[in-house]
Recover the amino acids of this structure.
């Protein structure tokens, strides 16, 4: 399956910011000097021990890393097959993996002398993480959020405002993550001197996909030593599973294992109401084809004329018609496999996690868990699955209550 | 020599500045936008920029975003835009047409096929906002080989070190974006733009046309005076969006063109 001509899956992107056909720098001229500058500053920071010392300190004392790698015993017994571990990134400060990346970008922004931070957000987790770190460092923070998402993720909107961020509802398009990203890019071309654009996933023009991946890779790096600690030296996971919106929590888990051929890698896209030609889903790899949007070439949901289609998912964090370019490449080379899970399956997984493990998951990792539920029973007891529990579900209880017909007005 | 090169040679001979007008193809519907396009040369427009609608126009402000939405809702496609240009060419074989838009609809059609079709439709040049010099291999180089001009944007962030790279594969003219921002934003002050244009003209013989933020005849005159011409987009698109009759849209275009030609 995996492409035999590739010696390593960990060398990308190339000088052009490409992962094979995917990635690149498809931005207007106004932004080009900015992303070249960012690339140079990031390349320098990457090899600067003081940068990583600052990251490590904050990861430990502010975020609470390392996050536990937790053997989900009752879930394992219930499914009756593979041994299931959950990487508990939902226990991070602010409740999701998003802050891993935000810390890196904000430290970089400070070193670049930027005073104003902008971000796009879907579920609001990236917006909350950005608002949080900006509050900590006294930076101005502006978050673009689709008007539809503002409505379905109200608790996160209030959190961001409490943290001092300005939340701007975006009404263009269908008012979801894609539209928020458009408006964040429009802000950036208008405020080029003082503003740093803190992108929340492994998408956007080079160097963002690589930079965000590098910051999120702490997830997979921890899994490697944590699993060895619990299962014996050298024991690698057999299967990694993570949900994919843009793909940052997934890249963070997958990347450190790309060159371990025994590790199966599975990304789970949002299947919405089902992946068919009615486009009521967000499964870019399963239902899209290569195109150019938001600075990179990647698989996109689009019509025959190259117009971008609106995705559909119960989960605001997965509601994006694209996917990070590195995933497109891992898909085409066969190194990783991508599947989709419907809203209904995710809701079922959400409830199972609550009941069996006492963990209220976000709707995003509920998609990953739904796929674990599908495959775990078919695998032997000594097969180890590590799933990224990348966010907690507090933000989603209103949505879930609505779908389960539960009246929240007590 | 493309129609663009011929147009600038003629303007130079007359000692006139160029007036470039942008409209969105298919806005608010195909028939109206075709009628506006037909009337542009008579209103004094030297070069037509024909917008190709895209769902995610990252460099555009609300006015042109909405124009694109109207156009797409009316069923506009890249094929219809090319057909519209071809129809225009039947009665006007000199006014240059530059297609302006974003890369994905072109990439989706296939670059090679797009270039053949665009050339056949009488298109003279392309402005593709999300293709910087770093991505020249995608469309810029093939377009020049197919005999189309590839017109690049330079911006206030294009510094002296970067300028040669921007100029390298540009042809037809250089489009100087007078502000950091999106279309339809605040107007630029000619006094601020003049040294920038001079800085660029010191490095190229190409005509330098200035756009973004120009909305009145006086502003068109002021900007055209310090460059080789100016572009007006949002101000015209706003009239079309407000549902003004074609004759009124064209009368306003004529006033803007007269402003630029006074320079
Ligand atoms: C908990 C959680 N998981 C996943 C995602 C999707 O993003 P990504 O695919 O980049 O991890 C989000 C986005 O908001 C999120 O909040």
């Amino acid at each position: 399956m995996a492409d035999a001509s590739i010696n390593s899956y960990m060398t990308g992107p190339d000088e052009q910011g490409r992962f094979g056909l995917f990635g690149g720098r498809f931005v207007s001229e106004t932004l080009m000097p900015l992303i070249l500058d960012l690339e140079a500053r990031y390349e320098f920071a990457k090899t600067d021990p003081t940068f990583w010392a600052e990251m490590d300190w904050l990861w430990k004392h502010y975020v609470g890393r390392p996050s536990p790698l937790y053997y989900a015993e009752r879930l394992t017994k219930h499914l009756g097959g593979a041994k299931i571990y959950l990487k508990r990134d939902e226990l991070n400060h602010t409740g999701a993996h998003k802050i891993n990346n935000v810390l890196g970008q904000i430290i970089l922004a400070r070193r670049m002398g930027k005073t104003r931070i902008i971000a796009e957000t879907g579920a609001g987790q990236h917006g909350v993480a950005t608002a949080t770190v900006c509050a900590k460092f006294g930076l101005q923070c502006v978050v673009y959020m689709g008007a539809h998402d503002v409505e379905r993720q109200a608790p996160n909107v209030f959190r961001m405002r409490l943290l001092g961020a300005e939340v701007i509802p975006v009404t263009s398009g269908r008012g979801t993550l894609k539209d928020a990203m458009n408006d964040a890019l429009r802000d950036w071309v208008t405020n080029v001197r003082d503003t740093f654009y803190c992108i929340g996933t492994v998408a956007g023009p080079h160097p963002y996909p690589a930079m965000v991946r590098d910051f999120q890779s702490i997830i997979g790096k921890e899994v490697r030593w944590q699993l060895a600690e619990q299962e014996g030296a050298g024991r690698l996971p057999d299967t990694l599973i993570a949900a994919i919106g843009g793909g940052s929590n997934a890249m963070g888990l997958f990347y450190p294992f790309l060159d371990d051929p025994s590790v199966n890698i599975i990304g789970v896209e949002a299947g919405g109401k089902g992946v068919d030609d009615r486009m009521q889903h967000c499964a870019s790899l399963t239902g899209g084809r290569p195109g150019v949007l938001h600075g990179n070439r990647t698989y996109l949901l689009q019509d025959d004329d190259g117009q971008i289609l609106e995705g559909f998912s119960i989960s605001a964090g997965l509601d994006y018609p694209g996917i990070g370019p590195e995933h497109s490449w891992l898909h085409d080379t066969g190194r990783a496999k991508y599947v989709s899970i419907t809203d209904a399956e995710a809701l079922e997984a959400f409830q199972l996690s609550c009941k069996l493990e006492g963990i209220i998951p976000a709707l995003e990792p509920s998609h990953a868990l739904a796929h674990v539920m599908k495959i775990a029973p078919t695998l032997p007891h000594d097969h180890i699955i590590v799933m990224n529990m990348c966010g907690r579900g507090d933000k989603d209880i209103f949505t879930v209550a609505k779908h389960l017909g539960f009246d929240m007005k007590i | 020599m493309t129609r663009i090169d011929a147009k600038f040679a003629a303007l130079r001979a007359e000692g006139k500045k160029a007036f470039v007008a942008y409209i969105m193809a298919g806005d608010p519907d195909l028939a109206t936008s075709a009628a506006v396009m037909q009337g542009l040369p008579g209103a004094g427009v030297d070069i037509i920029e024909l917008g190709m609608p895209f769902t995610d126009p990252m460099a555009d402000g609300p006015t042109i975003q909405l124009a694109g939405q109207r156009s797409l809702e009316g069923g506009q496609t890249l094929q219809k835009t090319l057909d519209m240009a071809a129809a225009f060419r039947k009665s006007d074989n000199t006014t240059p047409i530059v297609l302006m838009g974003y890369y994905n609809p072109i990439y989706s059609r296939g670059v090679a096929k797009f270039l053949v079709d665009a050339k056949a439709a009488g298109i003279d040049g392309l402005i593709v906002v999300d293709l910087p010099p770093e991505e020249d291999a995608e469309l810029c180089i093939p377009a020049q080989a197919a005999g189309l001009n590839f017109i690049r944007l330079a911006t206030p962030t294009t510094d002296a070190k970067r300028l040669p790279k921007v100029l390298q594969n540009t042809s037809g003219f250089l489009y100087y974006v007078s502000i950091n921002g999106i279309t339809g934003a605040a107007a630029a002050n000619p006094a601020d733009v003049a040294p920038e244009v001079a800085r660029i003209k010191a490095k190229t013989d190409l005509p330098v046309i200035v756009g973004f933020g120009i909305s009145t005849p006086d502003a068109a005159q002021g900007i055209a005076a310090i460059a080789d011409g100016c572009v007006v987009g949002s101000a015209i698109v706003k009239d079309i969006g407000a549902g003004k009759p074609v004759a009124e849209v064209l009368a306003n275009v004529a006033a803007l063109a007269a402003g630029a030609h006074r320079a």
About this structure: The pocket of pyridoxal-5'-phosphate is lined by residues A 96, 122-123, 125-126, 201, 243-250, 317-318, 362, 364-365, 390-391 (CB under 6 Å).
